[in-house]
Design a protein that fits this description.
129 residues, mainly alpha, 3 helices, elongated
Length: 129
């Protein structure tokens, strides 16, 4: 048996994919995947921007006469609640940062795998021709 008679499963799989999907559709699928990856990168960046919670935003009121009284009582309430809220807020900030970091790592791993798969696909397409 010569080397020419041996069936290469990778080549066979590529031929089936090409015949079933067509090269144009495969390229469209890759473009859609690249767009999806860019959208995911944008979402991770946005999550990173919102990962830190600020509990000390300024207190104000748009009411003309009763507004200063409302602001005063809100500040007093904030002082009493700060001890309870700050520990929860710190835990939430830690969790948010950990999740953004994990998402970023997953995205980097996915991009690396995608690059490897694209290289293999191009190498297989070259071998077919």
């Amino acid at each position: 048996m010569t080397n020419e008679n041996i069936i290469n499963p990778n080549k066979l799989l590529m031929r089936i994919r090409r015949d079933v999907l067509g090269k144009d559709e495969t390229k469209e699928q890759l473009q859609e995947l690249e767009i999806s990856i860019e959208e995911t990168k944008d979402s991770i960046y946005t999550a990173h921007l919102h990962a830190i919670i600020n509990i000390y935003e300024p207190i104000y009121s748009h009411r003309k006469f009763i507004g200063p009284i409302l602001v005063f009582f809100r500040k007093i309430f904030r002082k009493f609640a700060r001890f309870h809220v700050s520990s929860l807020t710190n835990q939430q900030i830690s969790f948010n940062n950990a999740m953004v970091s994990a998402l970023h790592n997953v995205m980097e791993t996915t991009n690396a795998r995608l690059d490897i798969l694209e290289e293999r696909l191009h190498a297989l397409e070259k071998n077919e021709l």
